[in-house]
Amino acid sequence: MGGIGKTTLAQLVYKDERVKKHFDLKAWICVSDEFDVFRVTKTVLEAVTSSTCDMKGLNLLQVTLQEKLMGKKFLLVLDDVWNENYADWEVLCSPFKFGAQGSMVIVTTRNEGVASIMRTTPTDHYLKTLLEEDCWSLFAKHAFYDYNSNACPKLEVIGRQIVKKCKGLPLAAKTIGGLLRFKLNVNEWEKILKSELWDSPINKTNILPALRLSYNYLPSHLKQCFAYCSMFPKDYALKKDQVVLLWMA
Length: 249
Description:
This protein is mainly alpha-helical. It has two domains: 6-118, Rossmann fold, CATH 3.40.50.300; 132-217.
């Protein structure tokens, strides 16, 4: 399920100081829909060497990566994997086998089939949606200036109804809470609560209703800027200054 916190949890592990001290090398790879062995291998190599790579052949890439990982304890995160092809996974993993004992690969995925194919140990973590009170706490943290909803009892009543529509998804609660942070008007909150977008089928667009609501309430000039970003591939590393200049042009 999207927005449940898989990537966030992996980031907490990846950035933890104890984890940093435990491994010699670390790499974070956004895989997404297109599981291209060459691209993923190249990205891993660039991450562990902190330099760009111009190699063209997969074999040369893998030999070079194997040399860099040889005897090193590494942590590799493959985020948002969709590919269920076992042969691709076997090819990708071949250089990883030369790392030191204790090396780890963390995979985040919405697909249980992917987890089954990529699993080398029986350790799986299935994330659950938030309990309603926890979801409310997260929403309130972003929706109210001082995290105190007691000062706005009418908004709290509406807010708790909105939280039920978030269905325990942290991303939805955080997004809608942030959207309402500067709208301390009962009518504005009721408009969000009664929006028809909550009933939009996710399976057709793969977009959470909360994210669609957030976009709909952007000012028109920001909608243009946001839509412009669709020109870039998914998980593309945007350079802020460059994007701003493109917007201006």
